[in-house]
Amino acid sequence: MYHFASARESLAVAAIIAGAYYQTINYYFLSDDFVLLQQARNFDWSLRTTAKPGGDGFFRPVGNLSLAATYIVAGADARLWHAVGLALHTVNSILVLACGIGMGIPSRAALVAALVFALHGAKPEAAVWIAGRFDLLATMFVLAGLLLFQRGRHAAAWIAMILGMLSKESAYAFPLLLPLATRCRTRRVWPFLTGAAALFALRCWILGGIGGYQDAAAGHAQALRFGWPTLKAFFLRLWMALYFPINWSFEPGRVLAVLGVLYIAFLLALTALGCRTRPETAAFVAIAAIPPLSVLGIGSDLANARVLYLPSVGFALMLASALDRAPPPWFRIGALVVLSFHASALRHNLRPWKDASEYARHGCAAALPGPPGHRLGVPLFVNGHGECLDLQR
């Protein structure tokens, strides 16, 4: 019965994602995509090239291998690249469902968590942008590792953790997430802490430091500075972007406004009913937000929201576990309101991605100059304008 139910629910998650994101298959490449496409095309598959750190100050060999493998199949066809990204996002959403059940959350609530994660309004930058592949992979390996550990396959979970850390730095939160998702004893965590420390030491040796984005003015990697901006990002902006993932750089429609009011009203009703969330799910959000803390200042246009991809797993489980403690009628009504709000926010937030995609497609074909920075929160030609023109040639 469990396997049948999980298969049916997994198919439902996949179908809803297909319905919500199907138009994004036709989007074009944007900004860093052109740089990554050129690197994938020139990848020579040698061990030396695979282990070589990127020019952006990061060490992500598994992510680079994934891009190179995708280029073999997809070439410069943006539709195939987007299809791979959406497939990974679908896998991650199903893993959220499985991990939620493994944490003891009832299947109906775990399904809501998977759908909140799938439809969350902060997802376009990770699920639609090709440059978000690193976030997709790191989260996939983290969730797979947690699920493997829940099922007693500890060695496989350790390998998944290492693959996640070689995909993106967000996966370094894995050892601290492990006891939250599995309730394992402390001694079980030590092999994972040791492996993470060893890999981090190797990373520092290869990069000559901790790595990270380079500060063009100072000529060194950006450092994490604890102060009011960091505290505001961690305690305010993180949670605002998770609860209300709306791109405020252009006006939301009436439907989203109405659903937003209903969403807020229902959250207040949950509080009044005493429907508390599981503390381990809130801790999941906080711990998953530690690796990207220095870039966690998400603005009103949701730029850089891809760093919320892994923390949104905990948020989805947190919201679903609170819903699960509501009386049956409230659960059904609440699930409908919550999912409708996030689906509407996602639809709203996808609009500038479509417009920027069309600009990039026609701009490169006509050799137009690339506008700097972001366009309504979408990275248009922050990087990659020259590579875009090369691709047209």
How are the SSEs placed, and which strands pair?
Blueprint lengths: L1 H20 L10 H10 L5 H5 L9 H14 L3 H25 L4 H13 L4 H4 L5 H18 L3 H12 L8 H9 L3 H22 L6 E2 L4 E2 L6 H16 L10 H19 L6 H10 L22 H14 L3 H38 L8 E2 L2 E2 L5 H8 L1
Antiparallel strand pairs: 1-2, 3-4
Helix pairs in contact: 1-5, 1-6, 2-4, 4-5, 4-8, 5-6, 5-8, 6-15, 6-16, 8-9, 8-10, 9-11, 10-11, 10-14, 13-16, 14-15
What structural class should be given to the helix and strand makeup?
mainly alpha
Q: Quote the average pLDDT.
A: 88
Strand order of the largest sheet: 1-2
Which bin fits the share of residues in helices?
55-70%
In angstroms, what separates the terminal alpha carbons? Answer: 56 Å
- The shape, in one word, is globular
Oligomer: single chain
Tell me the number of strands.
Answer: 4
Listing every helix as H and every strand as E from the N terminus to the C terminus, the arrangement reads: HHHHHHHHHHHEEHHHHHEEH
Largest sheet: 2 strands, antiparallel
Contiguous low-pLDDT stretches (5 residues minimum) are 1-5, 214-223
Estimated share of beta-strand residues: under 5%
